[in-house]
Amino acid sequence: MNVHRSAAVLAAAVVIGTAAPAVAASPSPKPSLPSGLYGSGDPTYDGVWRQSLALIALYRVHDQLPAAAVDWLAGQQCANGAFPAFRANPAKACDAKLMVDTNSTAVAAQALSVVGGHGGAVTKAVTWLKSVQNKDGGWGFAPGGASDANSTSVVIGALITQHTPVSTIRKGTKSPYDALLKLSLPCADKGAFAYQPDKKGKLSANADATAAAVVAARGTNFVTARADTDRELTCADATALTPARAAANGASFLAEAVAKDGYLKSALPGAEDQPDYGNTADAVVALAAQGGPEAARKPLAWLERNSAKWAEQSGPAAYAQLILAAEASGADPGDFGGTDLVKRLAASGPTPVVASKDDSDVSPWWIVGAGLAAGAGIGFLISGRNKRKRP
Questions:
Q1: Measuring CA to CA, which of 193, 229, 250, 354 is 20 to 30 A from 150?
Q2: Residues 266-292, mean pLDDT to the nearest whole number
Q3: CA–CA separation, 374 vs 364, rounded Å?
Q4: Helix axes 149-160, 102-115, angle to 10 degrees
Q5: For 171, which DSSP code?
Q6: Cα separation, 62 vs 365, whole angstroms
Q7: DSSP state for residue 194 in the 8-state scheme
Q8: Beta strands 83-84; 100-101: pairing state
């Protein structure tokens, strides 16, 4: 669910099957960058993900959403409703060679649900996601891949945009929450969530998966997650585990994980023991949503002191993650440890349309809305998205 997740996505693809080696070992040449895209980095593996997070973050702080940025995202959607990580030539129809994924589709659906004028694209994206739901009720990164906590959680976030109870969206008798709760560990293992079972079926605590699952189990998503009232975070085993209880257990695990240093550590294989800024930002959102501002206070303060260089190097998705963490926990994204996150993110994308002095009586938002409508009329509305967000 974050900036560093592209590596996780590639790792997941290796497990899924034959497409992975080609993706991991033979990356495509760096494509030319479209004018509507946020950031200057190669979008091959994270274009839709970072664009979606950027739009959601700017929406949450009531900043202007450039029509060009919205059009770019909408234009990434395939005719069947799915999104790839990046589609270099939107004018060319999607084919079997183009790898679409649940993560990209789900996050794009969340973004397009708030920009206005793209309800059809969101519905198509969600319809596609439902069509690739696994028998256990969950989703993997690639269609048909084994369910994992991160993918299931981001898809739950997309389902929420349709205002239909997630528990009623079933594959046979199984709902998305059934799949998610199967990945919840007992309090003896601190109540965390696992990403997936290993080859022997064993579950291991995973902080990234836990942060994502806590937000989803609370019935919220990137757009709506925000601080609840302050409450103590405790783990309690239950005979009949509910999403609410699993969310509370997962948050208690995260609280313990950041209690000493204020940050989560990198869990990537072979990586040195170092802070994981993206996971820490996601944990702040989860802690705030479950335990309130006080639960998120220490990791939020750590990010304010230490994340500036990371965000500058990592780009739009990192700024968006920090904005979501600040906004969810009641901090000011415009002065985050001395950095104006909103200004930095906005500067990495297209320039919003603003009213001229002669149009002083006309709302800039009306102009943006008109631009979005025009863009939709041009033909980009044929999509709805979610690729397997891997920056």
A1: 229
A2: 90
A3: 15
A4: 30
A5: B
A6: 10
A7: B
A8: antiparallel
What share of the chain in percent tops pLDDT 70?
Answer: 81
CA distance 213 to 149: 6
Coil vs helix vs strand at 100: strand
CA neighbours closer than 13 Å in the CB half-sphere of residue 294: 6
Tokens for 43? 């979008």
Q: What's the whole-model pTM score?
A: 0.84
Q: Any idea of the CA torsion for 50, 55, 61, 63, to the nearest 10 degrees? A: 130
DSSP code of 82?
A: -
* Those residues with Cβ within 8 angstroms of residue 11's Cβ, 6 or more apart along the chain or in another chain: 269
Measured at the CA of 208, the angle between CA 58 and CA 40, to 5 degrees, comes to: 45
Length reported for the chain: 391
What's the chain's Rg over C-alpha atoms?
A: 20
Alpha helices in the chain (DSSP H): 5-16, 19-25, 47-60, 67-74, 102-115, 119-131, 149-160, 176-181, 207-217, 243-258, 277-291, 293-306, 308-314, 316-329, 341-347, 364-378
Per-residue pLDDT, averaged over 346-359, amounts to 70
Short-list 153, 106, 104, CA closest to 129: 106
Instruction: List, for residues 225-270, the tens digit of each pLDDT value.
Output: 999 899 999 999 999 999 999 999 999 999 999 999 999 998 666 7
Q: How far apart are the first and last CA of the chain?
A: 9
What token pair was written down for 258? 């950041």
Which residues, other chains included, contact 388 with Cβ-Cβ below 8 Å and sequence gap of 6+?
A: 9, 12, 13, 85, 101, 102, 103, 104, 141, 142, 151
- pLDDT digit string (tens) for 285-329? 999 999 999 999 999 999 999 999 999 999 999 999 999 999 999
Tell me the C-alpha distance between 166 and 134, whole Å.
Answer: 15
| 383 has a pLDDT exceeding 60 | no
How many CA atoms are closer than 13 Å to the CA of 201, on its beta-carbon side?
1
Helix (H, G, I), strand (E, B) or coil at 386: strand
